[in-house]
Every structure is written in C-alpha cells, then in structure tokens.
Design goal:
This protein is an alpha/beta fold. It is built from eight helices and ten strands. The chain is 37% helix and 23% strand. Helix 4 (129-137) packs across helix 6. The chain has helices at 39-50, 75-88, 101-112, 129-137, 140-149, 167-175, 204-212, 233-251; strands spanning 3-6, 12-18, 25-29, 55-58, 94-99, 117-123, 151-156, 159-166, 190-195, 218-223. The strands form two sheets. Strands 1-2-4-3-5-6-9-10 form an eight-stranded mixed β-sheet, sandwiched between helices. The longest helix is centred in the last third of the chain and has 19 residues, at 233-251. The chain has one domain (3-128, 183-251): Alpha/Beta hydrolase fold, catalytic domain (Rossmann fold).
Amino acid sequence: MHKILYTKHKRKIAYKHYTGKSSIGITFLSGFNSDMNGSKANYIFDWCIKNKIECTLFDYSGHGKSSEDFKNCDISSWIEDTVDILNEITLNPQILIGSSMGSWLAIKVALLYPSDIKGLITIAAAPDFTKTLWEKELSLKQKDIITNKGFITIPSPYNSNGYIITKKLIKSGRKNFILRKTDLKLTCPIRLIHGESDQEVNWINSLNILKKLTETDAELTIIKNGDHRLSNENNLKKLSEVVYNLFKNLKT
C-alpha cells in the first residue's frame, strides 16, 4: 500500500517507505512515464526489506498514483518531487538509484545536495534525453505542433498510448542539462550500469558521464546483450550485486 506526501509545492506524491534498520537508505528514481510499480523498483524494495535496509519508492507528479496533469509537469518539477521525498520521508543519508531519466534526476539532486547523497547507481542513464529527442528524433512537423499546440503524442514501445512530449518538458530539459558541463563534480561513489544492446539510450551515454566525473570512485558495467529495461532475472541479480557492494563499502 502506498501513502501520500502533501508537498510544499501543493502536490500529492504517492510513495512507499520501509524504515529498515540501516544508517544509509536507498531511494529509487523511476524512468520517464514509469512508476514505483515497475519491476526494478519492486525488486529493489523487496531486496531492501530482506536486508533490513531503509528504502523509498515514489511516483513523480503526473505519474502513477501521484497528483497533477502530466502535461503540466517537467524535469524541474520531478527534481522538486525527489527533493521533497528526501527531505520529508527518508530517515538517513541516501544512495540514489536512477533508471533511465531517473539517472538524470539523481545526478542533479546529488550535485545540488552532496552532503545528503552517499552514493549513486545509474541504470541505462538518460541525462539530457530531451536534447536528443528535440535535435535528432522529432521531425520538423512534430516540432511545429509542439511549439504551436504545446504538446504532441509520439509512439512508444513501452506504452500503447504513446508518450506525451510537451513544450514545457523541452524547455525545462534545457535548464537542467548536465552533459554540457565540462566536469560533473559529484562527491560520492557512482556505479553506472548499461545494456550493450540498449536501443533507446546508447551505452556511450554512460561512458560520457563516466569521463566527466571528477569523483575517482566510479565504475561502468556494460551488460552483454542487455536491453534498456535491464529487468530480466540475471539483470536484476547483477543490479542487487552492485547495490550490495556499494552499500557494504559505504558502511565500512
């Protein structure tokens, strides 16, 4: 069962929280148009319960069981949702696990609040995906519709209804780009995981992040034949290994 956080931004954010008995917690950040009922999120939550580690899952505004119309939400509002959850719900310093777009948000939050974030794990990291979408994937006609109408629906292999792309999302993305920076001055260990056969976000994306990190405690794992979701049994087992090893190293 989920609970609701009434945030200072007047949003109702659905979340699940396990208190655990650990001094470091884990917060999972889902991907674009995904929610806390995804297979990786639930796997991590169950794994944390088994190991008595504090864990938090939540739905961004406009997603899942949270409030707001998706068309009125953007990268900045989802960063705010993440910060509100960390400030109001979590009990300890956190390891952030970000999936796809969630990795973008996780890195932004870690840059903004370095003392609160003890570690980062990215899965198929997709920072600045709105830039790639606008510059390489949308047609001129689609861009015109977004500019004049405010939004468009594009096909998605993960949702039969397609994905809504708004003018607000594109503009907010520009304000929050991270790959334009020469350096990513993160102060915590980071583990990047990416599928070799990811058709949505090339693994080179994670390599580019690795190269920009000033933090030397950073590792990139490429999963042979791995897809974008990385949610089969072997992928999830590998994810839990990465989480466990990072958690153990932070505890010692």
